[in-house]
């Protein structure tokens, strides 16, 4: 409480001051999002439509019709005809038998699974646990997206020139351990903003390094197939994520995602230290 000439005026609480500062920050950083929230819910849809049309025009103009040499094209057709179909379990199992492929793919799937479950449930967690409104939740997701752009564009590329793939793989899993501990202890949105920095770094590094290792470990003719298998990890997480994430959040709370992240990545880190995965396989011709 404080007094002025008009009488006694209630002093704003620390939570109200923090919320006001947060609103000022996000309105200063993300004016475009503010326009979307003021105008209409359909404005982002229209902007996305225009962006997709532009991307379609760029693809039609700049992407060549023949992206591969004819020899590689015939080799790919021969490999596809042998598999019998576009989706072949036998073909996937054949690729998994190459040295180091199965081990690295297991690390790729399980290291990112707990954080994938958390991100799937984040829209609910942000409003229910953090107490944010829909617009503020959008700002927080924008913050996460900006971090991803900065890390993938400026950090990961330089680290790949300075460190080996094995070092970066172990580093990303080790950072995930700290991220899991931070997620288990976080209580406010500011805690999440701090945890998001190493989270994005580990998440981006893990995806880039594992894709690089897996594509190098298979013959050149199977590069596209391996990239497709790597890309299937995210849809798989989105398929099982809502069910598993919903159960974890309902019965164990937000901290369960952090503890799951911590336990899984401790096991993977010990596995990487003890195993001798050939991470420097050269691409077969």
TrEMBL record:
Membrane topology summary: Multi-pass membrane protein
InterPro entries, alphabetized: MFS_trans_sf, Tet-R_TetA/multi-R_MdtG-like
Gene Ontology molecular function, alphabetical: transmembrane transporter activity
SUPFAM superfamilies associated with the record: MFS general substrate transporter
Keywords: Membrane, Transmembrane, Transmembrane helix
Annotated localization: Membrane
Cellular-component GO terms for this entry: membrane; nuclear envelope
Location, primary (coarse class): membrane
Transmembrane spans: 24-43, 104-125, 137-156, 168-190, 251-273
Domain of life: Eukaryota
PANTHER family: SOLUTE CARRIER FAMILY 22 MEMBER 18 (PTHR24002:SF3)
The name this protein goes by in its record: Solute carrier family 22 member 18
């Amino acid at each position: 409480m404080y007094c002025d000439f008009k009488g006694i005026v209630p002093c704003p609480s620390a939570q109200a001051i923090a919320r006001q500062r947060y609103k000022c920050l996000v309105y200063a950083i993300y004016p475009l999002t503010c326009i979307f929230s003021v105008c209409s819910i359909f404005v982002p849809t229209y902007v996305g439509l225009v962006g997709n049309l532009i991307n379609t025009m760029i693809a039609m103009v700049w992407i060549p019709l023949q992206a591969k040499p004819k020899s590689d094209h015939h080799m790919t057709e021969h490999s596809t005809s042998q598999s019998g179909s576009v989706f072949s379990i036998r073909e996937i199992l054949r690729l998994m038998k190459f040295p180091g492929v199965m081990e690295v793919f297991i690390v790729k799937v399980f290291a990112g699974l707990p954080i994938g479950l958390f991100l799937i449930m984040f829209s609910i967690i942000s409003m229910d646990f953090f107490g944010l409104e829909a617009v503020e939740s959008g700002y927080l997701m924008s913050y996460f997206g900006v971090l991803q752009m900065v890390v993938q564009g400026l950090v990961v590329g330089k680290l790949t020139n300075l460190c080996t793939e094995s070092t970066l793989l172990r580093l990303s899993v080790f950072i995930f351990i700290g991220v899991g501990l931070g997620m288990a202890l976080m209580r406010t949105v500011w805690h999440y903003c701090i945890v998001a920095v190493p989270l994005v770094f580990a998440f981006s590094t893990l995806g880039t390094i594992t894709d690089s290792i897996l594509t190098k470990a298979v013959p050149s003719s199977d590069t596209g197939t391996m990239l497709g298998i790597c890309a299937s990890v995210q849809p798989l997480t989105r398929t099982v994520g809502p069910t598993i994430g919903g159960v974890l959040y309902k019965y164990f709370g937000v901290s369960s995602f952090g503890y799951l992240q911590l336990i899984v990545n401790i096991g993977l880190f010990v596995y990487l230290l003890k195993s001798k995965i050939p991470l420097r396989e050269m691409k077969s011709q």
